């Protein structure tokens, strides 16, 4: 999955949590919670939404890595790459 595809999933998931938000105005380096004025429950729903959309485990300890759009994309790209590598290794054994 490309970074642009991951970004689209993140924006779609955020849009479901904060439908009034204009995703084109999101600063990729600023905290999502501050920009979208979402509370901790909304952020939890965001993490759950990403898990469902991408089928990637996001432990609670990793939630700070989802703080900004760029950090979120980086974390998910890494998590998805790691999952792909694990699947490839399992299929060759």
Describe what this molecule looks like in 3D.
This protein is mainly alpha-helical and 93 residues long. The protein has one domain (3-19, 26-92): Orthogonal Bundle (Non-ribosomal Peptide Synthetase Peptidyl Carrier Protein, Chain A). The protein has four helices and no strands. The protein has helices at residues 3-17, 32-36, 40-54, 69-92. α1 packs across α3 and α1 crosses α4 (69-92). The longest helix has 24 residues, at 69-92. The protein is globular, with a radius of gyration of 14 Å. The model is unreliable at 85-91 (pLDDT under 50).
Q: What is the arithmetic mean of pLDDT?
A: 89
N- and C-termini, Cα separation: 24 Å
CATH superfamily: ACP-like
Helix proportion of residues, in percent?
Answer: 55-70%
- Domain module tally: 1
Report the portion of residues in β strands: under 5%
Question: What is the class in the CATH system?
Answer: Mainly Alpha
Number of helices: 4
Topology:
Elements: H1 3-17, H2 32-36, H3 40-54, H4 69-92
Helix pairs in contact: 1-3, 1-4
List keywords for this structure.
93 residues, 4 helices, Non-ribosomal Peptide Synthetase Peptidyl Carrier Protein, Chain A, mainly alpha
């Amino acid at each position: 999955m490309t970074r642009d595809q991951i970004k689209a999933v993140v924006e779609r998931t955020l849009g479901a949590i904060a439908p009034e938000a204009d995703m084109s105005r999101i600063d990729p380096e600023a905290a999502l919670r501050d920009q979208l004025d979402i509370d901790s429950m909304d952020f939890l729903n965001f993490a759950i939404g990403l898990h469902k959309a991408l089928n990637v485990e996001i432990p609670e300890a990793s939630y700070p890595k989802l703080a900004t759009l760029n950090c979120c994309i980086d974390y998910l790209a890494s998590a998805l790459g790691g999952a792909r590598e694990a699947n490839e290794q399992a299929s060759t054994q």
